[in-house]
Amino acid sequence: MLLLALDTATPAVTVAVCDGAxxxxxxxxxxxxRHGELLAPGIRTALQEAEVERSALAGIAVGVGPGPFTGLxxxxxxxRVLAATLGIPVFGVCTLDALAEAxxxxxxxxxxxxxxxxxxxxxxxxxxxxxxxxxxxRPATAAGRLDGxxxxxxxxxxxxxxxxxxxxPHLPSAAALARWVSAGRPTLxxxxxxxxxxDAVEPGRPKRVSPR
Amino acid sequence: xxxxxxVLGIETSCDETGVGLVRGTTLLADAVAxxxxxxxxxxxxxxxxxxxxxxxALLPTxxxxxxxxxVAPAEVDGIAVTAGPGLAGALLVGVAxxxxxxxxxDKPLYGVNHLAAHVAVxxxxxxxxxxxxxxxxxxxxxxxxxxxxxxxxxxxSLGATIDDAAGEAFDKVARVLGLPFPGGPHIDRVxxxxxPAAIDFPxxxxxxxxxxYDFSFSGxxxxxxxxxxxxxxxGEPVPxxxxxxxxxxxxxxxxxxxxxxxxxxxxxxxxxxxxG
Lengths: 212, 276
Ligand SMILES: [Zn+2]
What we know:
heterodimer; B: globular; binds zinc ion
């Protein structure tokens, strides 16, 4: 089954074309500010390198976060539109699951990514099985609940005091995302995991403008 | 036999997800999803709320427009999308979607300036625009005067607001008067029962040394709030109808005077008013 996989929930814009679990081409660029610019050319390049026509694709796998809002939406809307227009299914994968897939650790471990604002998105795994999460918390809170087990992901490397046993990989790869889907592991609807409410406050009474 | 090109247009610059299908200059269908109700309690458009709503509304809105037009997506000859100006996160959803349609359908993609699009929309009603024409665009997001020699490749800004858009001033004055968001229709409604000459509110940027075609509505909004506060402090009732009518008069007065001046200076006989 030819899969196009992509994830934009972290600073990485990662795209892969895979035949089942076998990657035919993978294209990853790390630039947190240019998801909107980098994704479409990344898809084009990956399809060309894999020598796959888009009409031959059988499905799309997309990382659904959790991730900072703006970049995450670029990947999701792209995956939804491509899938709907090509008439193929779209599979959502928790971005932390893709990191767990790539980590390939036995036993229990954690995954943590950077949630900005001095927080991390995190989850706890036993092998490829997600036991808890995803959550968003301060590093110390997450570390407290991961009680000393190894932690992969950039969120762990960023806070080494909280996560002394931090491990690679730091960022998700689209090939791992495709592997997760082709192995038949649990997928999600292609809807964003924001985990936070929008920053907005309801206004009180209008502020006074006259001097007292 | 030649048929005119079929273009799918996508607009996500603010709080509405807009999709249109146009053949030549004939509008086949348009569909709009609005998140305005979700912003109401915040008294203005919240960018993150708008961006989230665009992601959810995009595909269903395109599907509705395509169904209403009675065309198949594969028949589309090109994709047009608002490239700016607008809310960055909101624009990004529409642009990413448009790129995906262009990629999936293997059709060209055109980025369109949002202000030029406001001008171009007139062609759906009245056919080709007279060249040149002058455009006054007024909404919650913009207040601009444009000289338009050719809408597809020569649109020149003569002036724009240096602070609040006219519509923002309506929203803020509505709050001062205890009227709901969005302010425009509510101010307009209560203004109908008021006297536009009751209060002489300031006309921003109309002095001899001010830029001829720029606008400023922030000072006006503050002047209205001061006037209302002074009334309240004196324990007198606030004549909401008169305040609304006089505020609206001050805004319209400046907009129309500057637009007509610009037409005279540039020898243009057609003034187009848009916004929304
Ligand atoms: Zn507009």
